[in-house]
Design brief:
With 478 residues, the protein is mainly beta. 10% of the residues lie in helices and 39% in strands. The chain has three domains: 4-116, Immunoglobulin-like; 125-293 and 333-362, Immunoglobulin-like; 384-431 and 443-477, no CATH class. It has helices at 125-128, 354-366, 384-390, 404-420, 472-477, and strands at 4-11, 15-17, 24-30, 38-55, 58-70, 84-85, 89-100, 108-116, 131-137, 140-141, 144-145, 149-155, 159-161, 168-174, 180-194, 201-213, 221-225, 248-260, 264-276, 291-294, 310-311, 326-327, 332-335, 449-455, 463-469. A hairpin with a 3-residue loop joins β18 and β19. It is extended and about 110 Å long. Residues 6-122, 145-280 form the Arrestin C-terminal-like domain.
């Protein structure tokens, strides 16, 4: 209504855990007295997935929802999934309010907030046990076996809170004749499910969060990397969701890959990593201070902002580029106080796809300017000279008995004529030439012109040869 200037909810905080009570106030600003029957508040929490498929030549949208909170004012003390935003699926918690005004439209408002969950403690026993992995590779040349390459790694614990460093130690034994090195990769795997129909559908998305390359190990040497924890850091990412939400699953893994100069990636070790909500702490020590931040821009949950949460400006056609969007809501995640580390030290290749490369190459080929081919010298014994020159002779002159030296001179004169003649204004030196009266050809069309070239004497007399140039461009190309 026009006389309601503001209708909003102000919560005491924007982050809640399962089991906490939401506290806040409803703000109403009006310019006239109004009669209100009441204000209704509805607390909701649901997960939603949606994408498009093609069935029987028809494009359709499939979607599925799962509700966690429905018309309750207190969050239940259960394992709630964390707030999550992506292009395919979302997990949102919000309060919807409605003002009941009789005989008038009812103003509505909505307030989104973030839920931190589920409860995962890094101090749990199942996460505190170290993980060991080892792999070996032999290479052979004919019947001779070369020295093996061995890769072993130890992950001291498998659960980390955002902002903590990964405690990883690796060892390399290089018995080959090539240099080897290690690449550590932190990977996010997100799977979306639609539990409708007989079999249902799913969609899998993988993101490589960071990559770190170690120093090279020389042939027939061994090396231990025990200080990787100083450079490997877990960025701010959504919490691990396994068996909590039936439509969205999120898990992480740490891959340790051995790379050789010529063979490429030869060995790979994979450790499952759990992103927790309660950080690691020393026993009998106070709880560390926690912070909250938005997810990294290269993971699901941080790279996408829905259009309903963006308040931008309308482009007016001016040259000014001041079009900063105002983001109304983004989910945040728990992390320990940390200083962000740039982990990736591998330069990425160009992101142009193969299809794009092919299109660009085709366009470049079409727009390439024409360049005349270079004139090649032909041996005198080549019989193709006679065929080439007879194509340019008129029917009257083609019956003449022309010797081979004369044909060579004619070919040379044709080349000089093409190089020196002006193609835009070709003059006919024969004054006696006059077209037939019935010849009514347009100037825009390619005209047939007869021209006389005077060749130098091959013997003691001069030879005049008449050419019929049917297409100047065609002769130029030849």
């Amino acid at each position: 209504m026009d006389y309601v200037r503001k209708f909003d909810i102000e919560l005491d905080k924007d982050v809640y855990y399962a089991g906490e009570t939401l506290t806040g106030k409803v703000v109403v600003q009006n310019i006239e007295n109004i009669k209100v029957q009441g204000i209704r508040l509805v607390l909701r929490g649901k997960a939603h997935v949606e994408w498009k498929i093609t069935r029987a030549g028809e494009r359709r949208t499939v979607r599925d929802d799962e509700y966690y909170i429905d018309e309750k004012k207190i969050l239940p003390e259960t394992a709630l999934p964390c707030s999550f935003e992506s292009k395919i699926g979302t997990i949102r918690y919000y309060i919807r309010m409605t003002m009941d005004i009789p005989y008038s439209s009812s103003p509505q408002g909505i307030k989104y907030f973030t839920v931190i969950g589920p409860h995962i403690d890094c101090m749990d026993e199942r996460y505190m046990s170290p993980c060991h992995a080892k792999d070996k590779r032999y290479s052979c040349c004919l019947c001779c076996n070369k020295g093996p390459v061995l890769l072993s790694a130890v992950l001291e614990r498998s659960a980390y809170c955002c902002g903590e460093n990964v405690r990883l130690k690796t060892e390399v034994q290089n018995g080959s004749d090539e240099n080897v090195w290690i690449i550590c990769r932190f990977v996010q795997n997100v799977e979306y499910f639609i539990n409708k129909g007989v079999l249902g559908m799913n969609k899998h998305v993988t993101h490589r969060i960071w990559e770190f390359k170690t120093d090279e190990v020389c042939p027939h040497h061994s090396e231990k990397f025990e200080n990787l924890q100083s450079v490997l850091q877990v960025p701010v990412v959504p919490t691990t969701l396994v068996d909590v939400c039936s439509v969205i699953q999120i898990c992480y893994s740490l891959k340790v890959v051995m790379v050789m100069d010529n063979a490429g990636e030869v060995l790979e070790l994979e450790f499952p990593v759990t992103v927790a909500t309660v950080p690691f702490r020393i026993p009998n020590s106070p709880m560390p201070i926690l912070q909250y931040d938005v997810a990294a821009l290269n993971v699901e949950g941080g790279m996408y902002i829905s259009s309903e949460f963006q308040l931008g400006q309308v482009y007016m056609g001016d040259d000014e580029t001041d079009t900063d969007d105002v983001v109304l809501y983004r989910p945040i995640y728990v992390c320990v106080p940390h200083e962000r580390i740039q982990v990736t030290n591998i330069e990425k290749e160009g992101k142009m796809s193969r299809a794009g490369s092919r299109i660009s190459m085709t366009r470049l080929f079409e727009k390439r300017p024409f360049s005349p081919p270079k004139t090649k010298e032909v041996d005198k014994e080549d019989s193709s000279i006679t065929d080439l020159n007879k194509d340019f002779l008129t029917p009257e002159m083609s019956k003449l008995d022309i010797t081979e030296p004369q044909l060579e001179v004619i070919d040379h004169m044709c080349t000089d004529f093409v190089n020196k003649a002006d193609m835009t204004s070709l003059e006919v030196p024969n004054e006696n030439y006059s077209p037939a009266p019935s010849d009514s050809r347009s100037s825009n069309q390619i005209q047939e012109q007869d021209c006389i070239l005077e060749a130098p004497s091959c013997s003691s007399e001069q030879t005049l040869i008449m050419f019929n140039i049917r297409n100047v461009d065609e002769m130029f190309i030849r």
